[in-house]
């Protein structure tokens, strides 16, 4: 059903030459926009545990969930991306086991 | 009829329970048990919860004989607790609430313990002693809040017991507290330990430091046995808890005590509290390990009360919080 993090489209990471900050992008395709929305709304409420040095933005377009990180340090970025992938795979597994969404 | 499913995972237990109008339909649970001498770390605990949560959810539905469509509301622990395990459980609760098209409800873990204790024991308006690995509070209800009359000023009583167990390498299976309780029954010699009650509050960190420092010396010199230490530690910390509970009862003119939380299933604590209650002509209420120790049904029960009184949590407000005091919650379901 929904793609796991590993199967998602190529991820992109780079250092922004203007800001000097690290940027990381991840696109995750879902079978339908409804499922992408469920994932977006499940993954969005919790803020980053760390106060500064990193920001994470989740958006969706069609059936694709997109995540964009901006971080000061690679170490902080890695922790956040790893933890997000753990969360994403749990949400996807939950959707596979208890989905698809019931029609409202 | 109102059916609420509750998700709990704020510490090393993961539990999912289903309640239908005061009836516990199912309440499966798993515990993350670490080797002797080790505590549970947030990321390892979260990994444990991720690995089993969907199996536990299937069990909860199967044992209750319900389909997702029969559920009216999905309750989960919003806090307090360890961040990573809390997020794990909240993610699944949010996802199934959306998949099933059901409202979501974030529950204060402490309120879950209190409401489950009230449901099981039918205690009407008790003074509550809430004792666990993460919390130690004496609570009484007044004007729409569970008010904290006394609490620990440092570590929880259960944390003191757990960490003592690590020092002398007592097994964490099924729980360090249970094993201390069994060993304490064989202890005969009372070793004096610091007794620290400060007004309505208690402190356990000094007792822990003292026993951490002294335990191995006393054991290797043959001054006392590990059983004696378990006995002495229990007698000391439980006496402190009984003292502040009694003082809170006197303040409130209360004739009921309810003990909740993981340490609450300790029979020696119940006995000591029982003696105090007898002397005052008061009544003691306690539950066994099924409902004292963290479980899903307690979140479902508090959720049931909240949902029936008109509360729901919007998805965007469903963030978890490591700090969430008992008295922050407006109790909309009691007079």
UniProtKB/TrEMBL annotation, chain A:
GO terms for cellular component: cytoplasm; EKC/KEOPS complex; nucleus. The keyword Iron does not apply. It holds the Pfam family Pcc1. Signal peptide: none annotated. InterPro entries: CTAG/Pcc1 (IPR015419). Component of the EKC/KEOPS complex that is required for the formation of a threonylcarbamoyl group on adenosine at position 37 (t(6)A37) in tRNAs that read codons beginning with adenine. The complex is probably involved in the transfer of the threonylcarbamoyl moiety of threonylcarbamoyl-AMP (TC-AMP) to the N6 group of A37. LAGE3 functions as a dimerization module for the complex. Belongs to the CTAG/PCC1 family. Component of the EKC/KEOPS complex composed of at least GON7, TP53RK, TPRKB, OSGEP and LAGE3; the whole complex dimerizes. This is L antigen family member 3. It comes from Scophthalmus maximus (Turbot). The lineage of its organism: Eukaryota, Metazoa, Chordata, Craniata, Vertebrata. The gene is LOC118285242.
From TrEMBL, chain B:
Keywords: Acyltransferase, Cytoplasm, Metal-binding, Nucleus, Transferase, tRNA processing. CDD domains: ASKHA_NBD_OSGEP_like_euk (cd24132). The keyword Cytoplasm applies. It is found in: Cytoplasm; Nucleus. Binds 1 divalent metal cation per subunit. GO terms for molecular function: metal ion binding; tRNA N(6)-L-threonylcarbamoyladenine synthase activity. The keyword Transferase applies. Its cofactor is a divalent metal cation. It comes from Scophthalmus maximus (Turbot). Transmembrane segments: none annotated. It comes from the Eukaryota. Substrate binds at residues 130-134, 162, 177, 181, 266. Residues 29-300 form the Gcp-like domain. GO terms for cellular component: cytoplasm; EKC/KEOPS complex; nucleus. This is N(6)-L-threonylcarbamoyladenine synthase. InterPro entries: ATPase_NBD, Gcp-like_dom, KAE1/TsaD, Kae1_archaea_euk, Peptidase_M22_CS. Belongs to the KAE1 / TsaD family. It catalyses: L-threonylcarbamoyladenylate + adenosine(37) in tRNA = N(6)-L-threonylcarbamoyladenosine(37) in tRNA + AMP + H(+). Its EC number is 2.3.1.234. It is an enzyme of class 2 (transferase). A divalent metal cation binds at residues 109, 113, 130, 294. GO terms for biological process: tRNA threonylcarbamoyladenosine modification.
């Amino acid at each position: 059903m929904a793609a796991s993090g590993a199967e998602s489209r190529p991820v992109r990471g780079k250092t922004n030459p203007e800001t000097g900050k690290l940027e990381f992008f991840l696109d995750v395709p879902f079978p339908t926009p409804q499922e992408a929305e469920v994932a977006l709304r499940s993954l969005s409420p919790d803020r980053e545990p760390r106060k500064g040095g990193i920001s994470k933005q989740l958006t969706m377009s069609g059936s694709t969930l997109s995540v964009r990180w901006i971080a000061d340090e690679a170490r902080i970025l890695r922790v956040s991306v790893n933890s997000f992938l753990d969360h994403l795979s749990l949400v996807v597994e939950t959707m596979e086991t208890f989905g698809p969404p019931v029609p409202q | 009829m109102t059916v609420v499913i509750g998700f709990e995972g704020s510490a090393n237990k993961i539990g999912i329970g289903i309640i239908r109008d005061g009836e516990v339909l199912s309440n499966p649970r798993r515990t993350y048990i670490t080797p002797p001498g080790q505590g549970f770390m947030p990321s390892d605990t979260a990994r444990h919860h991720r690995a089993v949560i969907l199996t536990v959810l299937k069990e909860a539905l199967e044992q209750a004989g319900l389909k997702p469509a029969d559920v009216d509301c999905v309750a989960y622990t919003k806090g307090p607790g360890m961040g990573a395990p809390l997020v794990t459980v909240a993610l699944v609760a949010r996802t199934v609430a959306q998949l099933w098209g059901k409202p979501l409800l974030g529950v204060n873990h402490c309120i879950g313990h209190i409401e489950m204790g009230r449901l099981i024991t039918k205690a009407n308006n008790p003074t509550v002693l809430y004792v666990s690995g993460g919390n130690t509070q004496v609570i009484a209800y007044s004007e729409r809040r569970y008010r904290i009359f006394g609490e620990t000023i440092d570590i929880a009583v259960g944390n003191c017991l757990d960490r003592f167990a690590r020092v002398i390498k007592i097994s964490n299976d099924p729980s360090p507290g249970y094993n201390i309780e069994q060993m304490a029954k064989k202890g005969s010699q009372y070793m004096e330990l610091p007794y620290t009650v400060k007004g309505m509050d208690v402190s356990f960190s000094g007792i822990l430091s003292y026993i951490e420092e002294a335990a191995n010396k006393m054991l290797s010199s043959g001054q006392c046995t590990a059983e004696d230490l378990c006995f002495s530690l229990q007698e000391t910390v439980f006496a402190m808890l009984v003292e502040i509970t009694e003082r809170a009862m006197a303040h409130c003119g209360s004739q009921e005590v309810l003990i909740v939380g993981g340490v609450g299933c300790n029979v020696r604590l119940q006995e000591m509290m029982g003696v105090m209650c007898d002397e005052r002509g008061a009544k003691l209420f306690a539950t066994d390990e099924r409902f004292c120790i963290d479980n899903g049904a307690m979140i479902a029960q508090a959720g049931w009360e909240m949902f029936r009184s008109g509360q729901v949590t919007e998805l965007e407000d469903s963030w978890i919080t490591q700090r969430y005091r008992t008295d922050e919650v407006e109790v909309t379901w009691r007079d």
